[in-house]
């Protein structure tokens, strides 16, 4: 055993045992009590007598003496007094055994809280998955998968929108999973609904980001649909933030990127896997890059989207960006929501 200075021993005691009401008992091989100390009263032992069999006082000890192992630990055992304790039995000199009790009330409460949180997390995860299935399947599959798309792929003029919740990743690393999923549920509702309401398809939901595709379903210009969806996303998030501020909860903004052009659209998946809609092409990559460079509450759109969404051109101004990972820099246009918008 290392030679520890008294201050170190005192520190270790205060750190690990002081608030756990340690009580110890020195027992013979047959379980008879030889000596005791600490705080046995905390566990209901107020009239201890030398020579008495502790198996009669602590039922879990019945049949354990002499122990088969030199040391044994039992976690969160409910004593006869109703107190929860960690029980440690270990051998000492001359064949004696030590019985150590440490109050485990707080530990047990913490374990119960963790179990409760795990149960809540499971419920929220199930609810979140149901919500995602509703968005990705119920509202979209009835429309999308009735289209006559060729599985190998079909070329189509589309508008692709990427939206990301700014700062949510770092937030999720510091907050409990239950709170993270609650927040994600609220913000995803605010972000995904405009995609669906404007006739788009929520193609992918990737953590705290959404990819929406417009132009798969017949109707209004996909560029117009995507821009209107972007405006509504920011408005929804602003409204949600006001509610969360009143409730003293963390709030987040979103960044949005939109690009329009020819893309490969098709159904992919092997015979033994669920088939999914997939959109591939340079404009998908461009929209993703625009989203990455968008500031909070900003929508960045490419030139194709700007030209087609003529009703909203006055809301956008030219932006100078250095786009990475795309061979189509072109002209980029920016809409940045004012503080009092929404």
UniProtKB/TrEMBL annotation:
Regions that span the bilayer: none
Domain (Guanylate cyclase) ranges: 159-291
Lineage top rank: taxon: Bacteria
One annotated GO molecular function: adenylate cyclase activity
Lineage: Bacteria, Pseudomonadati, Thermodesulfobacteriota, Desulfobacteria, Desulfobacterales
Species: Desulfonema magnum
GO biological process: cyclic nucleotide biosynthetic process; intracellular signal transduction
Protein name per UniProt: Adenylyl/guanylyl cyclase domain-containing protein
InterPro entries documented for this protein: A/G_cyclase, Adenylyl/Guanylyl_Cyclase_3/4, Nucleotide_cyclase
PANTHER family: ADENYLATE CYCLASE, TERMINAL-DIFFERENTIATION SPECIFIC, ADENYLATE CYCLASE, TERMINAL-DIFFERENTIATION SPECIFIC-RELATED
């Amino acid at each position: 055993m290392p030679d520890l200075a008294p201050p170190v021993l005192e520190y270790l005691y205060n750190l690990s045992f002081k608030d756990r009401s340690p009580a110890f008992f020195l027992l013979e091989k047959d379980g008879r009590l030889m000596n005791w100390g600490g705080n046995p009263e905390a566990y209901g032992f107020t009239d201890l007598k030398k020579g008495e069999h502790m198996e009669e006082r602590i039922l879990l000890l019945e049949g354990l003496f002499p122990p088969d192992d030199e040391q044994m630990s039992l976690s969160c055992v409910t004593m006869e007094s109703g107190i929860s304790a960690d029980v440690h039995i270990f051998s000492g000199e001359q064949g004696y055994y030590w019985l150590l009790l440490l109050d485990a009330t707080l530990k047990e409460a913490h374990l119960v809280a963790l179990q409760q949180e795990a149960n809540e997390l499971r419920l929220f995860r199930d609810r979140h998955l149901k919500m995602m299935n509703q968005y990705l399947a119920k509202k979209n599959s009835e429309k999308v998968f009735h289209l006559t798309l060729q599985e190998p792929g079909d070329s189509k003029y589309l508008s692709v929108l990427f939206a990301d919740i700014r700062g949510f990743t770092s937030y999720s690393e510091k907050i409990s999973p239950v709170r993270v999923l609650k927040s994600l549920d609220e913000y995803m509702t605010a972000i995904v609904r405009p995609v669906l309401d404007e006739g788009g398809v929520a193609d992918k939901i990737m953590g705290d980001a959404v990819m929406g595709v417009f132009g798969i379903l017949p109707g209004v210009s996909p560029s117009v649909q995507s821009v209107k969806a972007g405006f509504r996303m920011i408005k929804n998030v602003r409204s949600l933030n006001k509610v969360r501020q009143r409730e003293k909860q963390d709030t987040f903004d979103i960044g949005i990127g939109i690009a329009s052009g020819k893309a490969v659209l098709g159904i992919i998946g092997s015979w033994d896997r669920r088939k999914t809609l997939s959109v591939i092409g340079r404009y998908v990559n461009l929209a993703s890059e625009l989203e990455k460079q968008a500031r909070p509450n900003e929508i960045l759109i490419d030139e194709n989207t700007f030209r087609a969404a003529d009703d909203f051109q006055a809301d956008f101004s030219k932006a100078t960006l250095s786009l990475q990972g795309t061979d189509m820099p072109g002209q980029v246009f920016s809409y940045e929501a004012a503080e009092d918008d929404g």
